[in-house]
Amino acid sequence: MLFRTQDLSEIKVYLQRQWSKILTGRVSLQDFIFAKEVRLGTYSTNSKSTMPPSALVATHRMSTDHRAQPRFGERVRYVVVYGGPQARLMDLVVPPEQLVNDKSLRLHGTYYITKQIIPAVGRVLHLVGADLMAWFSELPRVYRAGYLRGPGLSLIAPPSPNNSTKEDGPKPGGNVRGVRTIDAFYQPTHCFLCHAIAPQEDILCTDCKTNPQQTVLTGMTVLREAERAYAQIVQICHNCIGGGVMEDPVACVSLDCNIYFERIKALQALERLDPLRQALYLFAQ
Predict the structure, then answer these.
(1) The CATH fold of domain 2-145
(2) Fewest beta carbons less than 10 Å away: which of 43, 53, 132, 149?
(3) pLDDT tens string 248-263
């Protein structure tokens, strides 16, 4: 894009759009998985803080299953998730399958953007005077917070104040829950369909409520498209595993398969629409 257009404003818009997708969860987890070599036996045993993240994840797996010990030099996959304000990187690394199965975990979009993407892209764009950190800071805070909802957007459920009391601290490569932030006391206030301001703790705005027929029609269209997209991916997985009884969810969990991550993404998009499904059911009553 830089060589074709020589337009930094177009590059800025593109990067901010991609960063917004990362922060709102509209990306494939496959693109954010690290895979680093592990050489157990060569690291210092005095402190786990000197071990690389991949070794921490491998050690945590071995603590629950001794058969999970990696071979010398084997690459171990991990991702980085959000944690407490004082959490270290070693406290935020978990296996990809844990992020998929644990609804309380969230991909650390800010880490990937500021520590991985911006340094790499910046080495090129700094030569033409672009300040990527300034571009990132210009994103609306609602994007950087990650608490958005609606079709195609993440619906992040803030932790309940009653269930967010402090714990003994996050375990390396394990649980990073139990963090209390100000978001725990404030619910999103945007309409699920038109993204306008909605009443507190309500998923639909006043305009959508006053036109129930159009709201039901639009909502059912959104739900139908999400269900169709998920069903198509499930059918691909069903054909891949050799047919038989249709399974939902599909038993295959191969991290080497692109379709697996697409299926997870489609399922999460469908689950985010559950509040809308309930609201439409009430309208139908």
Answers:
(1) Topoisomerase I; Chain A, domain 4 (1.10.132)
(2) 43
(3) 667 778 888 888 888 8
